């Protein structure tokens, strides 16, 4: 089936709106990425007046002008998440109040002084690349490039004995598990056609996500054995999933919840998890719905050397799909990675 969803709907997004700054104080809310014009790049130059190192997006304000030489004003600049910056070895303080910088990125669709940054030129003339698809913006001007040292970094094979029980990281160039089209029922097609990411955003402020949407997130994930259950700690929204291994609990008997009820079993190196009873109404963030009768079966397979965790999830939902839908992604093991407090600020 051809995908009828416009490209701007398929951009990753988060809820809220980044208020236009009227002075040196940084606004608390953040813009949905879908509200930026991905077809345009604006180049700003000015002085950083405030920095907010918080999720879901790190933000700073800059007083300056764009390349057209427009009247100097305060711009609200948003970039990617803390975790993604950490993966790029960009720690807090790489942009500081008082720095004179350039920022290039996508402007707000509504014409307000808001920018989603993809490149930053620091006072040292180092150019920082913030996005997986990012390219050098200022060739011949920069003194070097930061943010790309972890591109294509393989997983560490030094500790196969750990199995699944460690912190796993999404590689920078790991890609998305979402598909561009699905075998939708007529009702689901109508729901997708009516979906507007601005007015019907899947994520609201700092509210948590449910299954299966939460499994796409790019943040670190930790698996911990606790008796007859496995606890899955996901950095995004400080999410905790419990997987019962006792064989005494049937999936779906508990009261419906965002993450549902999960039971698991081992098949060799593969952890197989069946989840039902999910109250989350969204299959993905692009308007594909999820019904209360949905069932998900996940397969977590650790490589022999312990460097990689492959993931496959099969969703059966007769109210949404005409056949089961399979999605796949993977994580890699980087020994220094940890699950940090999410510290979300809307």
Tell me about this structure.
The strands form two sheets. This protein has a nine-stranded mixed sheet, with no helix packed on it. It has two domains: 7-146, Nucleic acid-binding proteins (OB fold (Dihydrolipoamide Acetyltransferase, E2P), Beta Barrel), CATH 2.40.50.140; 160-332, Calycin beta-barrel core domain (Lipocalin), CATH 2.40.128. Helix content is 4%, strand content 31%. The longest helix is centred in the middle third of the chain and has 9 residues, at 186-194. Strand 10 (229-234) and strand 11 form a beta hairpin. The chain has two helices and 16 strands. It is mostly beta strands and 346 residues long.
Topology:
Layout: E1 42-52, E2 59-66, E3 73-78, H1 82-87, E4 100-107, E5 114-121, E6 126-129, E7 144-146, E8 167-168, H2 186-194, E9 221-226, E10 229-234, E11 239-244, E12 261-267, E13 270-276, E14 295-302, E15 308-316, E16 325-332
Parallel strand pairs: 3-5, 6-7, 11-12
Antiparallel strand pairs: 1-2, 1-4, 2-3, 4-5, 5-6, 8-9, 9-10, 10-11, 12-13, 13-14, 14-15, 15-16
Highlighted features:
346 residues; mainly beta; Lipocalin; nine-stranded mixed sheet; five-stranded mixed beta barrel; 16 strands; globular
Rg, please? Answer: 21 Å
Q: Unreliable stretches, pLDDT < 50, 5 or more residues?
A: 1-31
Structural class: mainly beta
The counted number of beta strands is 16
Bin the helical content: under 10%
Overall average pLDDT: 86
Fourth CATH level, the homologous superfamily of the largest domain: Calycin beta-barrel core domain
**CATH topology category name of the largest domain:** Lipocalin
The CATH class label of the largest domain is: Mainly Beta
The number of helices is 2
Number of spatially distinct domains? 2
Beta-strand residue fraction: 25-35%
**Major beta sheet, strand line-up:** 8-9-10-11-12-13-14-15-16
Terminal residue distance:
37 Å
Summarize the biggest pleated sheet. Answer: 9 strands, mixed
Give the CA-based shape: globular
């Amino acid at each position: 089936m051809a995908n009828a969803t416009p490209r701007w709907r398929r951009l990753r997004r988060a809820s809220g709106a980044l208020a236009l700054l009227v002075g040196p104080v940084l606004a608390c809310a953040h813009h949905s990425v879908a509200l930026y014009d991905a077809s345009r790049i604006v180049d700003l130059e000015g002085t950083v007046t405030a920095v907010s190192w918080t999720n879901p997006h790190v933000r700073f304000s800059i007083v300056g002008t764009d390349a057209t030489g427009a009247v100097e004003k305060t711009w609200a600049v948003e970039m990617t998440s803390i975790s993604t910056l950490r993966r790029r070895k960009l720690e807090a303080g790489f942009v500081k109040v008082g720095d004179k910088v350039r920022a290039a990125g996508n402007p707000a669709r509504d014409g307000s002084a808001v920018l989603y940054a993809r490149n930053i030129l620091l006072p040292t003339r180092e150019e920082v690349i913030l996005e997986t698809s990012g390219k050098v913006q200022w060739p011949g001007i920069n003194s070097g490039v930061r943010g790309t040292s972890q591109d294509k970094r393989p997983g560490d094979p030094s500790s196969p004995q750990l199995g699944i029980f460690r912190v796993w990281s999404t590689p920078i160039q790991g890609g998305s598990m979402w598909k561009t089209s699905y075998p939708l029922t007529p009702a689901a097609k109508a729901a997708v056609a009516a979906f507007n990411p601005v007015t019907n955003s899947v994520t609201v402020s700092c509210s948590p996500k449910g299954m299966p949407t939460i499994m796409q997130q790019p943040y670190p994930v930790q698996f911990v054995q606790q008796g007859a259950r496995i606890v899955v700690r996901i950095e995004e929204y400080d999410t905790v999933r419990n997987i019962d291994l006792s064989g005494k609990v049937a999936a779906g008997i508990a009261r419906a919840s965002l993450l549902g009820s999960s039971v698991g079993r081992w098949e060799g190196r593969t952890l197989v998890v069946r989840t039902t009873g999910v109250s989350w109404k969204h299959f993905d963030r692009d308007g594909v719905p999820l019904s209360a009768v949905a069932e998900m079966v996940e397969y977590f397979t650790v490589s022999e050397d312990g460097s990689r965790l492959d993931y496959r999830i099969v969703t059966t939902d007769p109210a949404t799909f005409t056949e089961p839908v399979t999605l796949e992604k993977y994580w890699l093991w980087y020994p220094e990675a940890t699950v940090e407090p999410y510290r979300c600020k809307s």
